[in-house]
Amino acid sequence: MRARVALAALAACVLAALVAPRGRAADEKKPAANNGSCATCHAGIEEMHPWSAVTCVMCHGGDAAAATKEAAHVARKARPPGDERVLGQGLDLEYARFADPGDLRVAAQTCGPCHPRSVYDVTHSLHATTTGHLADGLYENGVVSERHARVGVFDARDELPADAPRPKEALPSVRQIDGFQGAGDRDKASTHFTDLPRKNCMQCHLWSHGRAVRGRAGMDGDYRGQGCSACHVPYADDGLSTTRDPTVDKYEPGHPRQHKMVRFPDTDTCGRCHYGDASIGLSFRGMAQPVPGMPQTPDAPGLHGKRLNGTYYIEDPASTPADVHHQRGMHCVDCHTRNDVMGDGFLYARMEDAVEISCEACHGTNDEYATGVTRRGTKLSNLVRKGTPERPEFFLVGRIDGKQHRVKQSKDVVLRGSKDFNEKAVAAMNADHARLQCHACHSGWSPNFFGFHFDRNEQFTQLDLISGQRTVGRVTTQEKVFSTFKSFYLGWDSHGRVAPYMVGFSTMASAHDEKGALVMEQALPTTRAGLSGMTMIHHQTHTTTARARQCAECHRSPATFGRGSSNFRLMRDFVVTGGDLGVRLLSLDRKKPDDTALLSALPVAKVRAIAVVSDRVTGRCTWAYAASPEDGLVACDVSSPGFPRIASKEQGAAKDPRALVAAGTKLYLADGDNGITVFDVSTASKPRQIARVPELPAFGLWLDGTTLHVAAGGRGIAAVDVRDPKAPRVVNPGFDLNGGDTASVTATRIAVLFQYGRPNQNVLEGPRTTPRALAVVGTSDAALWLVDVTEPAAPWVVSPSNRRTERVPVLDVALSTIYELGSEGGAIPTDERDYAFVLYEENGTRLLLLDVTDPVHPKFKGSTDLRRGTQSLRVARVYNPPFLQTFVVTAGTLGTQIVDVSKPDKPAVVASINQPQAGFVLDLEEFPLDRTVDGDGKPIMDVSHEGARWLDREEFDRVMATPNFWSKPAPGGKR
Amino acid sequence: MTKRRAVLIVSLLAAGAAADETVKETRSKGEITADAEKQFARADANADGKIAGEELVKGWSERYDLDGDAKVTRAEFVEVALRPPKLRHATPMRDAYWRAKFDVMIFDKNKDGTIQREEYPGDEGKFRKYDRNKDGAFSPAELLAMATDEIEDIRKQMRNPDRYEFLTLFDADKDGNVGLDEYDGPSDAFKKYDKNDDGLVAYDELYPERMRMKFDEEPKYEPESLNMIETMDKDKDGKVSRAEFKGTDDAWKRLDRNGDGVVTMSDAR
User: Fold this and answer.
1) Quick check: A825 contacting B, CB < 8 Å?
2) Nearest Cα to A899, choosing from A857, A854, A846, A940?
3) Portion 584-623 of A in contact with B at CB < 8 A
4) Across the interface, do B124 and A828 touch by the CB < 8 Å criterion?
5) Which of A152, A218, A872, B93 suits a disulfide with A129, CB 3.0-4.6 Å?
6) Which residue of A has its CA nearest to B227?
């Protein structure tokens, strides 16, 4: 490998030497005697390149012998556009060189004579081509069928010698990305997406100077140079210069901090660009993009006190602690090699191909000490080995500050007798986890913004940043829908190892035509493979913590592997209710909930349970299954919601139906004292009973992965393993909530949410909080119970019902996480909280919101009166750009009500739809943005990187089947 | 419902459990007072004007000691006696000391006798108002001050109770109705809501007709089959226009399958 790289480097040098203007290079490499007349005006200017003598003219061009400014400076041939467009590669090069010698357009003449390989490499690196970013978006939004489309900002081709050894991932060429492809189907999101990259994604690469054009004020954090200067010439946050050069305007933003280069860019410099997308530049520093709607004031708690990139970032050690490497004073370049940052001369389509550093290069493996060599064979010059051969010690020398950092070795952590030995780590750092990336477990937190949204409006024009023309279609992006820093996802990465997954370029689309008519609204993308493009991709989260995640966060959380949760379900258009008036479809008006109205109805007698099945990709309802003691199980075709039809009735299939849960091709019915019945709905119109669990009374159900949690009436709660739906296995026949007390407790409703552990603010030493699968259990005679069901076979009560309210009957329950927005004044911080929504009977029917973020100490948050006779509820997450709202939709004997609970302490009924006797139960048309795999284990969401995928059913089952050997709840519930 | 009222659910349940008297009161105020005076005199063995220590009959503290000072004064005894039968006990809906005491019972999770900010689910402004020494916790005295103000508010509401507060204010036994044996508000308000004049304000009398349906009632309608033309075609022209349709633009585009601007039967499948 080393030989290959060396050969490639040599070839690059030769090539660059050929390209460079020979005579001039030879002349200019000589030490400069003086700077001629430049120094007359620019007296006191700092030395830009102190490592060797370089004159002004060698970099900037111009004439140092001229007597006047006009004669000395290079004249501009055309007026600069003054905007963010990417100038052509051949446009006014002489002036481009004069303005910024680091500009890639002229770097071969300025930097190239001495650094030919670097110039060649960097112009072919991902930092210049942006191929990875562009390719992911095109694939996920269904524009192209090939993963890793070979597109970039400009055409580029591999110009190294044909016989030079190449990595297998190297590309021969990339072509410039196309503009809007208006000839496509205008009803498809993919067509409109083609207008996005050239209008919105062209500011973040080395051919561009970014958003902060010189002279444009208020762009703190965005000011930077371009090309080589982007990294090697630091800018202040405010873009103001402190140079001693008297000619530089000290009040005009957009100038380098001083006329001074650095060999290594610090983290802040990297942060000039790495704040968008997955935001690793923010995460590493303990920051995150703000949640839409959160107060944006410098004094608001949990926010970075300085406005950067046009926003006040979240900086809250309690939820977004900085990466341990950052906390220890390290910078990006302390880990990332030159090849990582500047490229190795080859064209790549994926970051994971271009980046060669890995945790093991410094920390070694469980069996071997660090080699100090990257996976591409590059020797890390700043990793020092000391100590004895048997007991070596490793130190990393900071490239910026020279500080030495002791590098703990994985081998020592599991080596008994070593000072770094960790008993707990031995249980995890073993062969069972050999195929995990280190950051699968050591990823402290992940910023995820599910449901990015772009809007394209043909009533307006916008600048195509490459062509420089204003074209029809204004594209706005970066509209986040769901925000979460708690959730955590895993899958196989491109290298065949398990790694964290995060939301990447998936975007849903809205579009209007030139007359303002709606073309599409919140349309979900579909890849050419027919899978959902609202997906995630594996990431190095750059939120490393020394303390790893706890075992339960993977082995007891199906949501980690894309099996979905009650969070992040994006409400679509319809509500389906069931009651004595049959099955009824309501058209929910997101913007004006009070306009929600009856759309259609089907005659099914006494519906007591209902489940809506939505299309896996579009999220649009296709089938509704209604269970009735009179009509049995009824399959309703609701694919045309205005004209639904009954496809079949299975008389006698349900006797006392209480709940229905649909998952993949299976349907689970809680049939009261008659137990649980499992149906196969592979043929959606004809449900077929495949199994029964008659011995287990069932009044409420919650499916979490392959565990069916059951509200089992007087038996309390129970659990059934449905890994094989044809042979369900009872793993917990009943857990008496009251612990054998004589008072009756009849469990009728259950909802489950996995609460991930949170990193400690001191990510090096502090423990994570306890993760758990929390069940909220509603009873008909003893109010509400909070139960830890992390181990379904061995639940324990976290918070018992309050004895004084034990007579209160609970009608329905739900769990969901809400990003609660703080107060404008800053007294109340913005925080991600878990809420239990409880429908109960107390002098009428009431909705209660309990904050169960800490279920040991649940807190009352708010409540509101509902109409008497309300029987059931669902939490609907509704996106009304630019904000996500949370509604509770209820059904009851008087009809449907919609309660806005976006502010949980102030729930407010926003709509009451009168439909006497219409609905006792309801379900929603929704798309779960965190469900990547369906109930049968088949992928719903695509993965845009070749080789990367979700865990399949067998792998998932194996992970979940891991015995609970790591911990047992101690008295008081502490694991 | 306010947070305060949510808390009261608990308090009222406790109070309701204690109220076991169902005897209809036929005596006049004067007779009640005279009987109470006599009973007090019998109990006050040492004739010091208060019942305390061994004079206290079991359960009297909870019933008559309105200010929680471990003795029952003549005034307290008479005041309780003058209440309607089901309210003849100390209750957090009428007595500030007991309201404060229930606050501690409910909110004081760590059982230190005070209520810290994190224990108190009420709003920040109220907490700041009554945390007079600004130590971040309600002391018993501060709780009592807050409860006193709250009882004052309750008494204000009692003077002119609206239908939505009526049960909360007066339904001492939590049976969903208010009888004269538990009502201590103005008589004209009782008469106003007691529409059938049977001496009982029932839930159905408090709320409008449409609110009176019960879950257990038999359905009044048969299940029906409706399509969107039947539900939304207001002008009965056999088609639904965008103006007639209620719902999102996205839903409309889905329903108007042929994109002709109206939904007809041709859009059915």
Assistant:
1) no
2) A846
3) 587-591, 595-605, 620
4) yes
5) A152
6) A600
**Rounded-to-integer distance, Cα B195 and Cα B190, Å:** 9
Instruction: Reply yes or no on whether the pLDDT at B19 is more than 50.
Output: no
Measure Cα distances from A276 to A133, A279, A281, A309 in Å.
11, 5, 8, 10
- The span from the CA of A505 to the CA of A175, in Å, is 20
Measure the CA–CA gap between B97 and B104, rounded to whole angstroms: 11
Query: Cα separation of A413 and A521, whole Å?
Result: 53
What is the rounded distance in angstroms from the CA atom of residue A68 to the CA atom of residue A36? Answer: 12
The pLDDT mean for chain A works out to 90
Q: Average the pLDDT over each of A469-478, A574-583, A739-748, B54-63 and give the range with the smallest value.
A: A739-748
| Least confident stretch, A189-198, A783-792, A798-807, A810-819 | A798-807
Our separate counts of H helices and E strands in chain A read: 25, 41
Which residues on B lie below 8 Å from A620 (Cβ)?
254
What residues have CB less than 8 Å from A567, skipping those under 6 apart?
A482, A484, A487, A753, A816, A817, A930
Cβ–Cβ < 8 Å for A223, A238: yes
Contact B225 A867 (CB under 8 A): no
Q: What is the pLDDT of residue A792?
A: 94
Instruction: Please tell me the distance from the alpha carbon of residue B169 to that of residue B197, in angstroms, as a whole number.
Output: 20
DSSP B11-65: HHHHHHHH----PPP-S-HHHHHHHHHHHHHHH-TT-SSEEEGGGSPTTHHHHH-
Give the whole-angstrom CA distance, residue A453 versus residue A456. 10
- Residue B148 CA to residue B155 CA, distance in Å, equals 11
| Cβ A135 vs Cβ A149: under 8 Å | yes
The CA distance from B90 to the nearest CA of chain A, in Å, is 17
DSSP calls for A211-231 = S--TT--S-TTT----TTHHH
What letter would DSSP give residue A5?
H
pLDDT higher at A199 or A35: A199
Which helix (H) or strand (E) segment holds residue A503: the answer is strand A498-503
Structure ipTM: 0.84
Q: Please judge whether B263 and A598 are an interchain contact, meaning their C-beta atoms are less than 8 angstroms apart.
A: no
pLDDT digits (tens, 9 = 90+) for A928-941: 999 999 988 899 99
Mean pLDDT for the stretch of residues B182-190: 90
Burial of B70 (0-12, 13-18, 19+ CB in 10 A): exposed
Give the pLDDT mean for A472-479: 88
Count of residues making up chain B: 269
CA distance B112 to B109: 8
pLDDT given for residue A628 in this prediction:
96
Closest chain A C-alpha to B9 CA, distance in angstroms = 8
**H or E segment and range at residue A811:** strand A810-820
H-run or E-run covering B6: helix B3-18
Cβ separation A601–B224 shorter than 8 A: yes
Tokens of B140: 């018993």
Between CA A830 and CA A828 the distance in angstroms is 7
Is there a contact between A264 and A335 (Cβ–Cβ < 8 Å)?
no
Work out the average pLDDT over A240-261.
96
Is there a contact between A642 and B227 if contact means CB atoms under 8 Å apart? Answer: yes
Q: How far apart are CA A202 and CA B75, in angstroms?
A: 83
Are B266 and B228 contacting, i.e. CB atoms less than 8 angstroms apart? no
- Write out residues 900-939 of A within 8 Å (CB-CB) of B: 905, 914, 916-917, 920
Q: What is the pLDDT of residues A45-58, one digit of tens each?
A: 999 999 988 999 99
What backbone phi and psi angles, to 5 degrees, belong to A453?
Answer: -135, 135
The CA distance from A103 to A88, in Å, is 12
Q: Is residue A24 predicted with pLDDT exceeding 50?
A: no
Residue of B nearest to A847 (CA): B1
Q: What's the pLDDT tens digit per position in B47-99?
A: 999 999 888 888 888 889 999 899 999 999 999 999 998 888 999 999 999 99
